[in-house]
Design brief:
Low-confidence stretches: none
Shape: globular
CATH architecture of the largest domain: 2-Layer Sandwich
Structural class: alpha+beta
CATH topology of the largest domain: D-amino Acid Aminotransferase, Chain A, domain 1
Mean pLDDT: 90
Helix content: 25-40%
Strand order of the largest sheet: 14-13-12-15-16
Number of domains: 3
Strand content: 25-35%
């Protein structure tokens, strides 16, 4: 197969591993920076151009689109979908997953466990918003934040009011979420491919840090997850319309709670913690499922 890996940096661990895994299996792997692509969107024959190349007869696309380039990256991906290329994760599902508010609303509609979450616009609702999520301590998250950035732990009611007021003065959109004390700065990353959790790790934040992100100095170790956690991860991935996802789950006294569904999960942490060839499993999924024209939306909506 001819497989495009959409990535801005071919030297990133995840990009390198995907290329290696595909080439080992005999596939033609092409790394393409989406920001260097251009398209004629009115053509009766959809096409994607990259530098001086015309990208034709692409069997499958593995999108590794960073959050900061979601808009243009998914536009390029839609063009491939219109050309009949199979996308590992479709443009519509990626856009959906990148909107924190929309994704939580979708997961809630699917009956998936979530931390109690509040969202409001009016400054008159601050006290009610804080009470709604169980009071301080609580978590305040910018909708645009990634990798733990823009996430604040407000330990007192007054601190929560101050952070909320500051974000509102910046015209920033944010969520207010209950703080799960029993999680103790840990969460689970369940890596889902198709209808299976193929690998899972527990992430623990560094001392004094409530966020468990590996990018913020957290550590990872292999973990055996429960059947309920496994089911929750698969349902969350499917609920978002994704084929591959990293589902972040927090253990609470009332069961597993989904924090986020990541449509471009990194491979380095999960492969090193579990010693599993996750990149090879992703290519294996494409071998079984990548049929030209099989994309559900074909670039629509």
């Amino acid at each position: 197969m001819k497989i495009i890996v959409m990535s801005r940096n071919r030297n990133l661990y995840s990009t390198r591993r995907l290329v290696e895994a595909g080439e080992v299996r005999g596939h033609e792997m092409v790394v393409v920076d989406p920001l260097k692509c251009y398209m004629n969107i009115t053509s009766h024959r959809p096409m994607v151009h990259y530098k001086d190349l015309t990208l034709e007869n692409v069997d499958a696309v593995i999108p590794r689109i960073g959050a900061s380039v979601t808009f243009y990256g998914t536009a390029v991906l839609r063009q491939f979908e219109m050309m009949g290329s199979f996308s590992l994760n479709e443009s519509v599902a990626i856009t959906r997953s990148r909107d924190k508010l929309r994704s939580l609303q979708i997961l809630a509609k699917k009956g998936i466990g979530l931390p109690v979450t509040g969202f409001a616009h009016s400054t008159k609702m601050t006290d009610d918003l804080i009470k709604m999520v169980g009071g301080a301590p609580l978590i305040i998250k910018l909708l645009e934040g990634t990798q733990g950035k823009g996430v604040v732990l407000a330990e007192t009611h007054k601190a929560a009011e101050s952070v909320i007021d500051a974000f509102r003065n910046l015209s920033a959109h944010f969520l207010v979420q209950e703080f799960i004390k029993e999680s103790a700065a840990t969460d689970i990353r369940a890596f889902v491919i198709g209808d299976k959790v193929v690998a899972a790790m527990k992430r623990t934040g560094k001392e004094g840090e409530f966020r468990s992100n590996l990018h913020r100095g957290g550590t990872a170790e292999v973990i055996k997850i429960s059947p309920e956690e496994r089911s929750t991860a698969i349902r969350a991935c499917k609920g978002m319309g994704l084929n591959v996802a990293g589902v972040d789950i927090m253990r609470s006294n009332h069961g597993p709670l989904v924090l986020e569904v990541n449509s471009s999960p990194g491979l380095e942490g999960i492969e090193r913690a579990t010693k599993k060839d996750v990149a090879g499993m992703i290519v294996g999924y494409l071998e079984k499922n990548a049929v030209r024209g099989k994309t559900k939306t074909k670039g629509k909506g």
